[in-house]
Amino acid sequence: MNYDRLITGRTVAQGILKLKAAAEATTRAEHGHHSCEITLPLPPRECHPNTSGIHWARKAKAKKSQRETAWAIAFHVRGNFEQPIIAATFYGKTSHKKDRDNSIASLKSAIDGLVDAGLFADDSLVRWGEIEFDKDAANPRVVLRIVEMKSK
Q1: pTM of structure
Q2: Given a cut of 80, is residue 112 above it in pLDDT?
Q3: List of residues 6+ apart from 63 with CB closer than 8 A
Q4: 91 in any annotated domain
């Protein structure tokens, strides 16, 4: 079986990098509620909603890559969130001010990858918690903290 095709549809090296990144996903159970933390690369520029002048094929390729990466990382996370709340911290190369809504929108393909991995059934159930921005020039990334919404 061609596992690199199964994982990413790309080269073996890219598949290995995605599987190594899967080690960055952790699952916890706290006070009867499960949660997980998933570290993803920052969304590519092509995935930002206000980016114009990019050919549709280039944009589609970036979205597909972001979705596959999120799937590969989340595939190893156990648990199914019925009503997930996602908090995100974006670590960029600079401390440049970012827009909260556009940052969430740039993660749309990644959230679809989490749905593909079975973390939750439908992305319409997702509620967004805190969105924070920080600087880490050496390791730009976005950390998603997913918790189950507490029932009333």
Answers
A1: 0.78
A2: yes
A3: 46, 47, 108, 109
A4: yes
Range of the domain at 114: 25-148
Determine the residue type at 110: A
Residue 73 near residue 21, CB atoms below 8 Å: yes
**Which CATH number characterizes residue 68's domain?**
3.30.1330.70
Domain assignment present for 126: yes
The separation between the first and the last C-alpha atoms of the chain, rounded to the nearest angstrom, is 47
Q: What is the pLDDT of residues 31-50, one digit of tens each?
A: 456 789 999 999 999 999 98
